């Protein structure tokens, strides 16, 4: 294929390797490794390196082949040309590996240190693992360990990577974790450089090639650690910090130099289909697997140079049973939420950064009836529900030169959602004009759930009634409940707790609240502090229940949640099944 005179702008993980050739056609990569036909009388022997040499100008016109054929497997007898394949076929699905995976090493390698080892576990077995230890000052450190490569292996890795760059073009293959580079191809490349390499060392090089191409380079193993919530780089020459579910803030042994860090943030932005530069040095982005990233470039907005924070996406959403098991909520408090959600009571979850607001909102949404129509609206997709009748929408920034006219805001999506007759509307977070539309939806009979940055009920109300949100007080009559949740610290560890569940009361243009449950910091329990509740009295009235019948239904849900938490049945499918079965038993009785 002749070299194009005008470069084509494209989103690419790999830049095409330029050569001095301007008129010769590229040959199929697979053909470089093809066995010679039986009809060949005098096969010419070539070295492996010569397979990648530039073509001479005296070459005759080679046969043109499709890009997909570069990755076609060698056939020993087939003479007819192969059917063209899509670019996605260049990547093997991990569920169907093209060769047998190496055996997983169950035992971790030994780790000798003068410090107290507090935890050790695999990240991507059998290649990467983590060592966590506590220093003499009580600080926990996180050491990520990957296989060491010899100088020869480093050369092979670099050469193989360079060859991949000449034939691979990024084509929006963004489903990290589902695809990997074709191992058959990688095995051929690596063995070509070193025919005597052992299978174990060859597979180690394949691990690095996948990590550096489709993965996240040096941080790829960290993205596999389900115990990590946040990854933070504050600048060049500064160790990365993590927020660990067990040990809170921990320091790693990973440090970027300035040049390496600049390249890395460019790669992060590219993975998110975003552009970051000196003219646009600050971006928010959603990474392919769902994690959120806030990225800065150079020292324009960050004094210490480029930086980033990755807030990891939890593949499996938090369920109500998990919140009970972790004591973020008591079973009794969660049972009240269950009954409130089933009976279409609107809710706002308030809390500070990283307090778990969205996780709680997602968990509470499990109690929505199975066939109810749901519309969710978010900036970055985080809500995950087992419901089928659910439309998930997300905002979009303007593309190209469209400017503000190309934006699809939360306000725009919320107005569109109201035309779809949803029974439940879930909004990721309210922070501006969309809050007024949300309250209008409440006042027109739609059940709504959302989150809000605020430390307590009073702060939440003040934020909603003042600039820039300005929700009229008269509209608060449709808001039933406000939850307050917080990230707390004790004994060097972080933990989340629901601080209070409150019902909202509006009388004569005044807003007040009635606490139903309050967290007791001395006992670490949730105290029920109400005798009568307007919200739950209304639920009993709507269903024609007596006080005893209301109490019975709350008790049924409490017992179901306790059983789920105690038995460890906390997965999405198990919790969804238990909720449905609880409802069915109630109907039968």
Summarize this, please?
The chain is of the alpha/beta class and 589 residues long. Helix content is 28%, strand content 21%. The protein is built from 15 helices and 20 strands.
Report on this model:
The structure is a single chain. By secondary structure, this protein is an alpha/beta fold. The chain folds into 2 domains: 151-311, 2-Layer Sandwich (Beta-Lactamase); 320-588, Rossmann fold. The chain is built from 15 helices and 20 strands. It has helices at 29-32, 151-167, 183-193, 199-213, 220-223, 258-271, 320-325, 331-342, 357-364, 410-418, 434-443, 457-465, 534-543, 547-567, 572-588, and strands spanning 91-93, 116-124, 128-134, 140-145, 179-181, 228-233, 241-244, 248-252, 282-286, 292-296, 307-311, 347-351, 374-378, 390-394, 424-427, 447-453, 481-490, 493-507, 510-520, 525-528. It has a 9-stranded mixed beta sheet. Strands 14-13-15-16-12-17-18-19-20 form a 9-stranded mixed beta sheet, sandwiched between helices. A hairpin with a 7-residue loop joins strand 6 and strand 7 (241-244). The protein is globular. It starts with 28 loop residues before the first helix and ends with a helix. The model is unreliable at 1-100 and 169-177 (pLDDT under 50).
């Amino acid at each position: 294929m002749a070299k194009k005179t005008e470069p084509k702008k494209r989103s690419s993980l790999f830049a095409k390797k330029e050569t001095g050739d301007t008129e010769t056609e590229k040959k199929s990569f697979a053909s470089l490794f093809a066995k010679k036909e039986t009809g060949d009388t005098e096969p010419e022997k070539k070295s492996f390196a010569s397979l990648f040499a530039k073509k001479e100008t005296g070459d005759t016109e080679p046969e043109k082949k499709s890009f997909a054929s570069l990755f076609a497997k060698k056939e020993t007898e087939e003479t007819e040309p192969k059917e063209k394949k899509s670019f996605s076929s260049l990547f093997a699905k991990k569920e169907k590996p093209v060769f047998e995976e190496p055996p997983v090493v169950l035992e971790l390698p030994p780790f000798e240190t003068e410090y107290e080892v507090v935890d050790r576990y695999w990240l991507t077995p059998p290649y990467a693992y983590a060592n966590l230890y506590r220093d003499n000052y009580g600080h926990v450190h996180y050491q990520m360990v990957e296989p060491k490569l010899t100088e020869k292996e480093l050369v092979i890795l670099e050469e193989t990577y360079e060859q991949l760059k000449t034939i691979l073009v990024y084509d929006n293959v963004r489903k990290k974790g589902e695809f990997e580079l074709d191992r058959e191809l990688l095995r051929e490349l690596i063995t070509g450089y070193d025919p005597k390499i052992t299978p174990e060392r060859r597979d180690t090089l394949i691990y690095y090639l996948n990590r550096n191409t489709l993965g996240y380079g040096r941080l790829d193993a960290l993205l596999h650690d389900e115990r990590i919530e946040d990854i933070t780089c504050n600048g060049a020459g500064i160790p990365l910090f993590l927020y660990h579910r067990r040990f809170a803030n921990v320091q790693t042994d990973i440090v970027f130099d300035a040049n390496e860090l600049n390249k890395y943030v460019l790669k992060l932005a590219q993975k998110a289909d975003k552009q970051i530069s000196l003219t646009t040095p600050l971006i928010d982005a959603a990474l392919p697997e769902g994690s959120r990233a806030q990225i800065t470039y150079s020292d324009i907005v960050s004094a210490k140079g480029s930086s980033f924070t990755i807030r990891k996406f939890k593949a499996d959403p938090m369920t109500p049973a998990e919140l009970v098991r972790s004591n973020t909520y008591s079973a009794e408090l969660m049972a009240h939420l269950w009954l409130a959600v089933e009976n279409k009571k609107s809710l706002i979850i308030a809390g500070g950064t990283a307090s778990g607001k969205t996780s709680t909102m997602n968990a509470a949404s499990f109690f929505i009836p199975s066939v109810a129509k749901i519309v969710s609206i978010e900036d970055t997709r985080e809500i995950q529900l087992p419901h089928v009748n659910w439309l998930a929408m997300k905002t979009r920034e303007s593309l190209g030169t469209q400017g503000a006219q190309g934006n699809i805001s939360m306000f725009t999506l919320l107005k569109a959602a109201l035309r779809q007759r949803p029974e439940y509307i879930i909004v990721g977070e309210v922070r501006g004009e969309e809050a007024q539309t949300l309250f209008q939806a409440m006042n027109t009979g739609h059940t709504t759930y959302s989150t809000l940055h605020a430390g307590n009920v009073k702060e939440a109300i003040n934020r909603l009634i003042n600039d820039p949100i300005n929700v009229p007080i008269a509209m608060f009559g449709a808001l039933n409940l406000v939850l307050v949740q917080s990230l707390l610290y004790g004994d060097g560890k972080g933990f989340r707790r629901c601080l209070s569940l409150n019902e909202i009361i509006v009388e004569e243009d005044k807003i007040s609240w009635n606490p139903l449950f309050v967290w007791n910091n001395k006992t670490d329990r949730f105290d029920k502090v109400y005798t009568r509740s307007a919200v739950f009295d209304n639920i009993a009235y709507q269903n024609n229940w007596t006080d005893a019948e209301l109490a019975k239904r709350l008790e049924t849900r409490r017992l179901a949640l306790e059983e789920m938490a105690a038995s460890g049945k906390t997965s999405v499918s198990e919790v969804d099944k238990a909720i449905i079965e609880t409802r069915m038993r109630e109907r039968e009785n």
